[in-house]
Design brief:
The chain has nine helices and seven strands. The chain is of the alpha+beta class. Residues 249-254 have low confidence and may be disordered.
Length: 299
């Protein structure tokens, strides 16, 4: 079975017109390609083609196999382009993978002098293919961790596109932090076995004392492992300043990361540089950690 779709809002800008996708474990994908499609809402000779994907599937997808095959691939597109776009599928796309690609390939697919919106890199289609190659080299445990953290990242990007700005800033910032937190290890016990204390007044032995590292400490350990050395301290300081203000204060004290409760997001977003910088920096750090996780945890 052939499944094909393109993403009208995502322009293709890469040196090659197509790249092979590596099938995911536990998916029904047998082969696939990401390529520059000539299908555009408004055809133009000035712009490159749009991103398209064609897959050869071993069977018709059901609820479970569709998610593991199609939805996860769409999440990789979101990771590369940092935006979640609705795909438009082809009806009766063709008899074979090569036929679909050949009959729908755009003539224009690379222009190093052009940027499309927030698509600041040339290699975004290539990244999608590279992600698929790296994922298969992860252990099953790390595959699960990556897919879950990636889904959370994509929820954040989906919320960021909503038209109503009230409260969404803190919500998607929290989801980005949650995605990073899911990549990090769980807090580790600092005492194995538990420490027993002696009361200085009565010499009675007190109960076993156990305490653990924090979620923030484990995120910093993750940054130590995955971020280039020259950027480690800057990103750890960034987490120090942001983590409790969003993750803890938002949940427990009702303080909003974007001052939404007093109209701050609407009134101040264009003039408050900190809001804009935190938005961009957290999104980029989340994306970078997801990418490095599948590169540096290969077996």
């Amino acid at each position: 079975m052939i499944w094909a779709a393109h993403f009208p809002g995502l322009f293709y800008n890469c040196e090659n017109a197509s790249y092979k996708l590596t099938p995911f474990p536990d998916s029904i994908i047998q082969a696939g390609k990401v390529f520059a499609s000539n299908r555009q809402i408004i055809p133009t000779e000035e712009h490159n083609g749009t991103v398209a994907i064609a897959l050869e599937l071993s069977s018709n997808p059901d609820e479970s196999t569709y998610y593991k095959s199609i939805e996860r691939l769409k999440n990789l597109v979101c990771l590369s382009y940092t935006s979640l776009q609705q795909e438009q599928r082809w009806e009766n796309p063709g008899e074979s993978l090569d036929e679909v690609v050949a009959s729908n390939l755009a003539e224009r697919f690379y222009n190093p002098d052009v940027r499309y919106g927030e698509q600041l890199s040339w290699d975004l289609p290539l990244r999608i293919a590279a992600y698929s190659q790296n994922i298969v080299r992860l252990s099953p445990e790390n595959q699960t961790k990556f897919w879950q953290a990636l889904q959370t990242f994509c929820y954040a990007r989906q919320i960021a596109q909503l038209p109503n700005p009230q409260y969404k800033y803190t919500l998607y910032m929290t989801l980005h932090l949650s995605s990073i937190n899911q990549l990090a290890s769980e807090p580790q016990s600092l005492h194995t076995p538990a420490v027993h204390l002696i009361c200085p007044d009565c010499n009675e032995t007190l109960g076993g004392l156990t305490h653990s590292t924090s979620h923030l400490a484990e995120i910093k350990n993750l940054i130590d492992r995955l971020v280039p050395t020259e950027h480690v301290q800057r990103n750890k300081d960034f987490m120090d300043n942001l983590f409790h203000r969003i993750r803890s204060s938002f949940i427990h004290r009702g303080e909003f990361a974007g001052a939404e409760d007093v109209g701050g997001f609407i009134a101040l977003f264009d003039s408050n540089v900190e809001l804009l910088e935190n938005d961009i920096n957290l999104k980029r750090l989340n994306r970078s950690l997801l990418e490095q996780f599948i590169v540096q945890n290969q077996e």
